[in-house]
């Protein structure tokens, strides 16, 4: 029962980590709130580890490093086109 609670909390932090990216990716409006994806991902990893759900651990690690991944892909894309 406790594991389901931790899984749900981890899933909420995963979704929050994705939601903070929406203004930047969809509206093309850069906001410093995207840096919260690292915090939400780290908290999600902790709760997913406590629930022993390794799929959520991997998903939250991806969210935690998504800032660097998206910025790297963006710089690479604009270096090719510009």
TrEMBL record:
<keyword id="KW-1133">Transmembrane helix</keyword>
<feature type="transmembrane region" description="Helical">
    <location>
        <begin position="6"/>
        <end position="26"/>
    </location>
</feature>
<keyword id="KW-0812">Transmembrane</keyword>
<feature type="transmembrane region" description="Helical">
    <location>
        <begin position="33"/>
        <end position="51"/>
    </location>
</feature>
<protein>
    <submittedName>
        <fullName>Uncharacterized protein</fullName>
    </submittedName>
</protein>
<feature type="transmembrane region" description="Helical">
    <location>
        <begin position="57"/>
        <end position="78"/>
    </location>
</feature>
<keyword id="KW-0472">Membrane</keyword>
